[in-house]
Write a structure and sequence with these properties.
Layout lengths: L10 H10 L6 H19 L2 H18 L1
Length: 66
């Protein structure tokens, strides 16, 4: 089951770390890091049906925010 409610302890701290991790990277390095992070976390989740739902939700969110 895909969790869509906030489920990260210290979410503000995590977000700050995520943004900070991109400092000093070129745009292509930043994109590569994001792709690597997605693949690492996807492997950790390991459930195809959850990953498929996450992809669909992320795409819908990106389209709606444009």
């Amino acid at each position: 089951m895909l969790k869509t409610e906030l489920n990260i302890a210290q979410a503000d701290h995590f977000y700050a770390q995520l943004i900070e991790s991109h400092e000093g990277l070129s745009t292509s390095q930043s994109h590569a890091m994001n792709a690597a992070l997605v693949l690492i976390l996807s492997n950790h989740v390991g459930e195809l049906n959850v990953l498929e739902k996450a992809i669909a939700l992320a795409k819908k969110t990106a389209i709606e925010s444009d």
